[in-house]
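Next comes a concrete protein, fold included:
___
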Amino acid sequence: MTLKPDVVDPLVLPAAPAVSLDIEDIYYAHVAQVTRWVGRLAGPGHEVEDLVQEVFLRVHRRLSSFRGESQLSTWIYAITENVVRARRRGERLRRLCSGGPSLDDLQLRAPGPTPLEALERRRSNALIYAALDGLAEKYRTLFILFEIEGLPGEQIALYTGISVATVWVRLTRARAKLAARLERLEKRTVSRG
């Protein structure tokens, strides 16, 4: 992707010398993007605002260690992914210790035009996120960034530090694994109902 010299890609910031390292500037420039990432990577049932706050607390604490070897947005994405991964890991351990939630516990609170449509949407989303939760993080993250967040493969490669070819291979595998998990979960849901 080539840009005209006078067009600036909002996702691509210059290296450290030209980037303001004021936490307030960084927060206002990236909060919407980080909120989207957190919401999508964490899935339903997570406190997005708390996770976004944790991301920016870590950004603030580690700002002096930002060397400008990558784009600021790439560095912030890595912190976001680590915060979400740590929270999901902790919640997974708590579920294992407490017996774990059912699919009904994972339903989203999504508004819909009618109660029936809202229920169907929640069940569908819960099923998808339940299937996503069973994927390895390397597949889950790429699937969410590409399919849900709509990022191009090149941007995902920048954020995750892997090659574009690896992005496409893992994305193909993620789709296959997700389809298989969805099929198993749907069969289990039908047999219960």
The chain has two domains: 18-99, 101-193.
